Amino acid sequence: MESKKFVQIVESTQKYFVQQMNLGQGIALNEALCENLFMLLVSVLNQIPIFVVGKPGSSKSLAMRLLQDNLKGQASENTFLRSLPAVTVFSYQCSPLSTSQGIEQAVAQARRYRQSSTNTITVVLLDEVGLAEQSPHLPLKVLHKVLDEAMENETLVGISNWTLDPAKMNRAVRLYRYCPG
Question: With b meaning 16 or more CB within 10 Å and e meaning fewer, what string describes 99-115?
């Protein structure tokens, strides 16, 4: 009985935070989107690296875009969201040709921006990070260094259609969205 109450509290908390955001016309707040948005919000605001893993269509990229669109600091549409820092995303599109240098350049660009911005959290988004695991250049080996050297007001988000090698994911939260069928 207590576990059911706990789940209800978590779900209502998720919905409260997510309902503060403008989702835009035609976007349904389904369970996957709500969970992804809430976990990304909590992780980014607390500067905790996170990997969001799920099949195509499980709202991973949409959740990240909505977070970026809504967290604009004082320029946010909603009073609650104005109380939160702005989030600026530096995206790196991973591929089987990715290199460590490419990821490091995205991190360096985010750090340069953060130095001149106040009340802003910079996020390095590794989009389709699972594809980088196929690269002969082994670009994800740099993740340990990047995560260990993370500075205040910066974090990393990885989005993937499949789970990465555990050694690469052990320094971040992993949100796995199971979609049967």
Answer: bbebbbebbeebbeebe
**What span, in angstroms and rounded, lies between the C-alpha atoms of 66 and 75?**
15
The whole model's pTM is what? 0.92
86 strand-pairing partners: 72, 120
Q: How much of the chain exceeds pLDDT 90, in percent?
A: 74
